[in-house]
Design brief:
Blueprint: H1 20-41, H2 44-72, H3 76-99, H4 105-127, H5 136-153, H6 161-190
Length: 191
């Protein structure tokens, strides 16, 4: 039996983009349609599965980061794909819940607008040769969004918690978007 080897490093000295850390990132994206199907299927068992798969998918964000830093190395592709996978997981799950009339569309639209703005800013900066990783504030925003989606997907529990968590997530989303814009302008001037 042949041994499985990691892809060779790229010429720039960073690991090849095709590695275990980035595989977890891609898995997170692949699980979004599975969650959608389960939410639309309805019923207790399907909802529990949607909840469990969402929690697992959210945990892969920590797993891929740990694998990248400790085992295979951080890649530029991973630095760009990881936050995009987070956005797809959160926005996809929120949109499915909004289509099911379980949460308000305005909250989804605020989050989408912030994410589109940050993605456009990040793309412009990459073209200028600047990669700006997520800030701790952005990570808090992501955690708040994960908590909100988790509470909406949870088949049991106090109904008042989910809307409150979504409100906190929306506020943190807007605040982190402003923070990202300010940091982006500063970073661009420094480059």
């Amino acid at each position: 039996m042949a041994a499985v080897t990691e892809p060779a490093e790229t010429t720039a000295g960073e690991p090849h983009w095709l590695n275990w850390a980035n595989a977890f990132t891609m898995l997170r994206v692949a699980l979004v349609p599975v969650i959608a199907v389960l939410v639309f299927a309805g019923g207790g068992d399907a909802r529990w599965w949607a909840f469990g798969i969402f929690v697992f998918a959210a945990l892969t964000d920590s797993i891929d980061g740990w694998v990248a830093r400790q085992l295979v190395g951080v890649t530029r592709w991973g630095q760009l794909a990881d936050p995009l996978a987070d956005k797809l997981l959160i926005i996809g799950s929120l949109a499915v819940l909004a289509v099911n009339d379980e949460l308000p569309w305005w909250a989804v639209l605020v989050i989408i607008l912030r994410e589109v703005w940050v993605t456009v800013q990040r793309t412009v900066m990459v073209r200028q040769g600047v990669v700006m990783p997520a800030s701790p504030f952005g990570k808090v925003k992501t955690v708040s969004q994960v908590v909100a989606v988790t509470l909406y997907l949870l088949p049991a529990g106090p109904e008042v918690l989910a809307p409150a968590a979504l409100g906190v997530a929306v506020v943190l989303t807007v605040a982190s978007g402003v923070d990202y814009a300010v940091r982006g302008v500063k970073r661009a001037r420094e480059s």
